[in-house]
Amino acid sequence: MRELVFALEYGPGSNAVADTLADHADARIRSLSLHVTDERLWRVDHATGPPEALADIETTFRETDYYADCLATTDCGASQRTQVLDHSGETLVLYSCWERSSDCASVPHIARAYLGDGLLFDTNHEGRHYTWRIIHSGEGDATGFFDELEATVGGGVRMEMLRTAAADGPTGETTDGPDALSAEQEAALRAAVEHGYYETPREIDVSELADHLGVPRSTLTYRLRRAEAYLAEQHVADERLPASTPG
Questions:
Q1: Cα 43 to Cα 121: distance, rounded to the nearest angstrom
Q2: In the sheet where 40-48 sits, what is the strand order?
Q3: Please, are residues 151 and 105 in contact by the beta-carbon 8 Å criterion?
Q4: Residue 13 dihedral angles phi and psi, to the nearest 5°
Q5: What is the pLDDT of residues 100-150, one digit of tens each?
Q6: 229: closest CA among 188, 169, 170?
Q7: Which end of the chain is more exposed for a tag (fewer CB within 10 A), N or C?
């Protein structure tokens, strides 16, 4: 089995959910389940955040042309229904079912066309960044998938590869590919170190560093968070390795 992890960064006006989350920095949406056939897509999402953020997220899912991840840039004629399964405190659980039209495209449908059946999807949506993790057999055409996705997402969306990995160990360990940190994440991390972002006290804040790199503040924050998470995971994994025994 193999996994692909990548992020879509939505510009203003290119995705209603991203626009809503961009207004609520403390909110996020993560998929609990996601299933796809040629004709439809259905999913359950778990949103967390302050009550006002959850209210806006629910409104976005119910009243805008979200169409459960459709990548079409114009009205595609799809139909969708959304049902609230739970809304209490800082938790919102939503069920969405989307009937495709001939003009519709989505990450899961493109993945199914190029990577085959039996796919597992895990998504995390924070601000304008929508991270996808896809588990697949490894027998499909991953290059074709990314080429098709890049051609489909449109000019208001930027795609960033985050991780490739293979579960090829005897106990299911995950072996990282050479691009565990994307070039953008590594550049952000290097710049943060070089400019004293990790010093105590900090010599530069995230807004100043973003201006220096010429990227939006939210983009830099996201890249640093992803890079830090990867380094933390690697550190913990290294600590779990058995100590070598002298020969």
A1: 10
A2: 79-88, 91-99, 40-48, 28-36, 120-126, 129-136, 2-10, 157-166, 175-176
A3: no
A4: 85, -5
A5: 888 888 999 999 999 998 999 999 999 889 999 999 998 889 989 999 998
A6: 188
A7: C
